[in-house]
Write a structure and sequence with these properties.
By secondary structure, the chain is an alpha/beta fold. It has 2 domains: 2-70, Arc Repressor Mutant, subunit A (Orthogonal Bundle), CATH 1.10.10; 99-357, Type I PLP-dependent aspartate aminotransferase-like (Major domain) (Aspartate Aminotransferase, domain 2). It contains 13 helices and 10 strands.
């Protein structure tokens, strides 16, 4: 089983890189599954699985009775027409994203974990947490995102805080209120309000069906780009593969920083988790934010931030005086969820249920 998994992921990774590099250009036809399998010395099913992953992420498209064709375009290299803007949302027409229908972790499982933590850690739950979060939880998060998202970070690149909204504020403290922050339009309203409350100016960048318009990225003088590449709220837009590469190239060319807000991306119905911007450029360009509010329960006010490796020490020094806003007990409970495998089993159940529901529709 492991060798099959490695085989299809290897094919997927190699083909994805060839497409990004331009070895296969937009509109090119890929070899048939059978031809590819014979050349690679593997099974047709293995190739099919790799093609399915590429299709899920927008690199290729299957056309009935014709085969698989490349749909990836790099906006930095190829001129493309602008897409229609995402529709305007009237005031009051959008509810808070934390009020969405959610599928919470089972209460019996939650209660069992809480009892175990009380028994196993005893008086340690009363100790003060280190400012960046307990080492136990930061190591647990580091191992989890390596397993589930292909993100490789050391525990000292992880900062724990009481939800994404608190972490947005820390972003301003680290990067500076003198910078201009580019924000998707439309986007989650509290992103704009928190930047404003922290004294930072923002620029609204029009969102199309594949991500922020190229013309908007060229127009803005923003030095920080706050994006939600997966299922942006409230539009539901997921940035295409080419758009993600464009965001990274934009930031590198300008010496800018991307704040990747990866809220609830674990619930993607793809058989492979979405590529994060952080996994594509982990050294200098991307600060990654995620929370457990939707994946476990709205009452779990725990989020985490991943700092790019080369900037980690410098950025942490700017907020080192802040105390951790998450109780030690809550951190130990979450670490137990992650270490026991209960969290990933919960995520997999929800994803299977959603895939089945999509098939019915």
């Amino acid at each position: 089983m492991e060798s099959k998994t490695a085989a299809y992921l290897t094919i997927y990774t190699n083909l994805r890189q060839q497409i990004i590099n331009g070895d296969f250009k937009n509109g090119d036809k890929l070899p048939s599954k059978r031809v590819f399998a014979e050349a690679a010395g593997t099974s047709v099913i293995t190739v099919e699985h790799a093609y399915d992953l590429l299709q899920d992420e927008g690199y290729i498209e299957a056309i009935q009775r014709r085969g698989y064709f490349v749909t990836y375009t790099s906006e930095d290299s190829f001129p493309v027409g602008e897409e229609a803007d995402i529709g305007i949302f009237e005031d009051g027409a959008v509810t808070d994203k934390y009020e969405e229908s959610i599928e919470t972790f089972s209460f019996p499982g939650f209660a069992r974990t809480v009892r175990h933590v009380l028994s196993a850690y005893a008086e340690r739950i009363l100790e003060k947490s280190p400012n960046e979060g307990s080492l136990l939880l930061r190591e647990s998060i580091s191992r989890y995102i390596k397993r589930s998202r292909g993100i490789h970070v050391d525990s000292d690149q992880v900062i724990v805080g009481a939800g994404a909204e608190y972490l947005y504020g820390l972003i301003v403290q680290m990067l500076g209120r003198d910078k201009l922050y580019g924000v998707e339009d439309p986007s989650y309203e509290k992103i704009r309000r928190i930047y404003e409350a922290n004294g930072a100016a923002y620029d609204l960048l029009k969102l199309g069906s594949r991500g922020i318009h190229t013309s908007e990225l060229k127009r803005t003088s923003a030095q920080v780009l706050h994006v939600t590449p997966f299922d942006s709220y409230p539009s539901g837009v997921t940035a295409a593969a080419g758009k993600r590469q464009e965001y990274i190239a934009w930031a590198k060319n300008r010496g800018a920083i991307i704040v990747e807000d990866d809220y609830a991306s674990e619930f993607s119905t793809s058989t492979k988790s979405e590529d994060t911007l952080f996994s594509l450029e982990p050294l200098r360009t991307v600060i990654y934010i995620n929370t457990f509010t939707k994946t476990i329960s709205p009452s779990i006010r725990i989020g985490y931030m991943l700092l790019p490796k080369e900037l980690s020490s410098e950025l942490k020094s700017r907020i080192s005086f802040y105390s951790c806003t998450v109780p030690t007990f809550d951190q130990y409970v979450l670490a137990e969820f992650l270490n026991s495998g209960d969290f990933e089993r919960h995520i997999n159940r929800v994803r299977r249920k959603r895939r089945q529901a999509n098939k019915v529709i």
